Amino acid sequence: MVKSISGMSTLAIYNKLFDGFYLSWHKISLLSHLYFVLGACFSGITGYFIILRLLLGIPCLLVLVIYKWSRRHLSMDDKIEEFLQSHNLTPIRYSFKEVKKMSKNFKDKLGEGGYGSVFKGKLRSGHHVAIKLLCTSKGKGQDFINEVASIGRIHHANVTKLIGFCVEGSKQALVYDFMSNGSLDKIIFSEENRNTLGWKKLFDIVIGVARGIDYLHQGCDMQILHFDIKPHNILLGANFNPRISDFGLAKLYAIDESIVSLTAARGTIGYIVPELVYKNLGGISYKADVYSFGMLVLEMVGRRKNLNPFANHTSQIYFPSWIYDRLDQGEDMELGDISDDEKVMIRKMIITAFWCIQLLPSDRPSMNKVLKMLESNVELLKMPPKPFHQLPLETSTEVHSCENSNDEESVLLHNQF
Ligand SMILES: Nc1ncnc2c1ncn2[C@@H]1O[C@H](COP(=O)(O)OP(=O)(O)OP(=O)(O)O)[C@@H](O)[C@H]1O
Ligand SMILES: [Mg+2]
C-alpha cells in the first residue's frame, strides 16, 4: 500500500497502479463540503470575502423577491380597480380591513348624515374616495349586496359613482368617488362661501341636477326615486360639476319597509313633500323628487334656507312666498347687481321651481319637462299659481303605493309644454 506518492518516479507510480488499487473516502458534512468546494475555488481573503457576500446576499435576495412578489400582487389590484372604474362595471367588494386601511383607520371625517358617517380615503392606485360607513341597515347581507349591485350599475355624469362596498357582518360601507368641492350646502349656506359661485355656474348646477334626477327617474333600467334631494346631497367635483349623492340609499334602507315610514324617519325637515303629510293629495311618486328639486332651486337662488326664522323682515321668513310675490308684482328681487343674462337665468329657475313645488303632485312637471323649461326661451314660461295654500286636508301616515301619474297636461304652460 502506498502512503504517499511524493518522491516516486512516474514509472514507479504506473507500476503500482498496474498492481491494482482501491478507493476510500470519509463521510463529510454538507457545511464542510461547501467549505471544501469553495475553499478549492477561492483561497485566502478573497474566498472568505465571497463566502461572506453569499451569506449576506442570499437573505437580501429573498427579501427582495418577497417584496417584489407582494408589490406585483398589489399592482394587479390597482389594475382591477382601474379597469372596473374605467369600464363602468360592477362595484368592487372590499374587506373591512381594506376599508380601514384606505381610510387610515377612519382618520379624516368628512361629515355625518342620517345613514352614517363619511370618511376620506385613498385607493392603492392613489385615487381619492369617500367612504360612507353605514349604521346597520335593515336588510340582510345578501339584500345589501343585491341592492349595491343595482346601484353600482348606474352611471351618469350627474350621479355620484359607486366604486365599491364592504359587507362583513354588521359592518357595511359604501366607497364613492371623492368630490373635491364637497356638498352644495357648504357653499350656498355659508356666509363666507356663498358668493363663490356666480349665477351662470349656479344655473349650470341646476341643469346638471335636473339631468341627474331625470336619469334616475327614467334613464336607467329601473326607476330610482331619491326621496332626499337637498343641497347636502348635491356634491361638487373639481369644476363644480354637480353629482347627486345617496340615490338608492332609501331603497337600501327600505327593504321590508314602506316608503312612508322610511321617509318619516329619514326625510329632512323643510324638504318633505306635502303628499307625505296630507292624504288625498295622491300617492307618493317621482313627483316627490320634483318637489324637493323645486325647493332646492329656490334655496340656490336665495342662497339661504327657504325657512329662515332669523330673516331681517318678517315677510322674508318663508323665502318662496316672499320671492313669488315680488316676481309676480314685477318688483326687484334684491339679488344684487346682476346682468340681463343673469336676470333671465334667475327668472327661469324661479318659475320652474314654482311649478315643481305645486301642492298637487299632478300639477308638477316631470323632470324631463323641467329640463325643457330651463332650456327654453324665458318668454314662453308662464308663472304658475301661488303654490302655498292653507291646507284644509287631513294628515296621514298611510302608505300609498308608488304611482306613475301621467298628468303632465295639467301643467299650465304655453303650448310648447
Ligand atoms: N363622495 C363624496 N365626496 C366628498 N365629500 C362627501 C362625499 N360624500 C359625502 N361627503 C361629505 O360628507 C358629508 C356627510 O354626508 P352624508 O350623506 O352622510 O350626510 P348628509 O348628506 O348631510 O345627510 P343625508 O344622510 O340625509 O344624506 C356631506 O355633507 C359631504 O360634505
Ligand atoms: Mg348625503
TrEMBL record:
Q: Which UniProt keywords apply?
A: ATP-binding, Glycoprotein, Kinase, Membrane, Nucleotide-binding, Serine/threonine-protein kinase, Signal, Transferase, Transmembrane, Transmembrane helix
* Domain Protein kinase, residue spans: 104-381
Which regions span the lipid bilayer? Answer: 34-67
Q: Which Pfam families match?
A: Pkinase
| One of the record's GO molecular function terms | ATP binding
The way this protein sits in the membrane is described as: Single-pass type I membrane protein
Q: Summarize where ATP binds, as residue positions.
A: 132
Which residues, if any, are the signal sequence?
none
Question: What is the protein's major site of localization?
Answer: membrane
> Can you cite an annotated GO cellular component?
membrane
Do the record's keywords include ATP-binding? yes
Where located? Answer: Membrane
Q: Which domain of life is it from?
A: Eukaryota
Keyword DNA-binding, does the record have it? no
UniProt family annotation: Belongs to the protein kinase superfamily.
Q: Which PANTHER family match?
A: RUST RESISTANCE KINASE LR10-RELATED
Protein name, per record? Protein kinase domain-containing protein
